Amino acid sequence: MAVSVRDVAAAASVSVGTVSNVLNRPAKVAPATVERVLHAIEQLGFVRNDAARQLRAGRSRSIGLIVLDVRNPFFTDVARGAEDRAAEEGMTVLLGNSDENASREGSYLDLFQEQRVNGVLITPVAEDITRLERLQAGGTPVVLVDRHTEDDAFCSVAVDDVEGGHLAGAHLTAIGRRRIAFVGGPPSIRQVADRLLGARRAVDATPGATLEVIEMTALTVLEGRRAGEGIVSRAPDDRPDAIFAANDLLAVGLLQALVMSGDLRVPDDIALIGYDDIDFAAATVVPLSSVRQPASLIGYTAVDLLLRELGLADDGESAQERAVLFRPELVVRESTGG
Ligand code: RIB
User: Fold this and answer.
1) Of 100, 182, 250, 275, which is best to mutate to test ligand 1, by the most ligand atoms within 8 angstroms of its C-beta?
2) Going by C-beta distance under 8 Å and a sequence separation of 6 or more, which residues neighbour residue 311?
3) Is the whole-model pTM more than 0.85?
4) CB proximity list for 188: less than 8 A, separation 6 or greater
5) Distance CA 255, CA 336 (A)
6) Beta strands 329-331 and 290-292: pairing type?
7) Domains along the chain?
8) Beta bridge partners of 92
9) DSSP states of 176-206 as a string?
10) Which atom of ligand 1 is nearest to the CA of 100?
11) How far is the C-alpha of 203 from the C-alpha of 143, rounded, in Å?
């Protein structure tokens, strides 16, 4: 049976990605590691061209994708982009929904391991990714989606959420708002923490501006509506004059509550901006300003990185970068006076 890239990785006690780096970008790898991998290649008689055929023969034609919330159009757009790239290589994507629950995430990781998927794309629920490190060390490459990491152990694709939060905060201060509320979810979700950090930097740089944090239990329309009802119930002087919602689903719920109150106008009384720029954002009763993430491109790029790690990309090229970080884009609509 031909020796695979996974066999070499196991023999050298490194990840599949490191073997790929030794073969394609040895300058990025510590000399001692290069030596260890080359020794394993020689000992095992690894023949690179066999790797792709071997992987195809020994594995299913699928890739596992685990997202935080399948109801969120952002993630369905990510999944669609992933499917498009996988289909170019005749492969399929198995979709799992962790529902922001670490136990459900673990169950899907077990399932995909049993299904012998070629690799796993995941938006991790928590900061602790030791389970993913073990999965990759066992020969199943992992690509972090919507999570940036400088750790070369994993490929990753994300948007700079700190910059995105700053774009939102700076836009609200630029239109003259000074009592700003950030409506988000648990700070354990890295995307929420990074967006808040960016917004705080923008507010701190604006004399007289304040930032109130309203933490909800989840990033959903229902939680957004609950947050909006809370704001409506306040005395007028105690309300913010602008809201930055950590994603568009929260913003849609907030908008419903504010408009249904009957005595609050968006943006006149309260400006509102979301994040993701999902398709519905432009179609809300007051078209929603948002910070756009290229969701479909994130999914497409994540699969492309995985396929290159595995030597399965038809052009045979390895990945140029293992950590891809896209720039967010401010989209101004009526909800902030656009
Ligand atoms: O899942 C929470 C949020 O993180 C999504 O709305 C999307 O913005 C992702 O980046």
Assistant:
1) 275
2) 5, 20, 48, 51, 52, 55, 318
3) no
4) 126, 127
5) 12
6) antiparallel
7) 5-48 (1.10.260.40), 58-159+295-326 (3.40.50.2300), 161-293+329-336 (3.40.50.2300)
8) 62
9) T--EEEEEE--TTSHHHHHHHHHHHHHHHTS
10) 1
11) 34
Segment 45-94, tens digit of pLDDT: 876 554 455 455 566 789 999 999 999 999 999 999 999 999 998 899 99
Q: What is the dihedral of CA 310, 316, 321, 326, to 10 degrees?
A: -100
Which residue's C-alpha comes closest to atom 1 of ligand 1? Answer: 68
Residues listed for the chain:
338
Q: Which residue has the tokens 């501006």?
A: 209
For CA atoms 300, 302, 307, 308, give the dihedral sign: positive
SS3 142: strand
100 Cβ below 6 A of ligand 1: no
Radius of gyration of the chain (CA): 23
The total of other beta-carbon atoms located within 10 Å of residue 225's CB is: 19
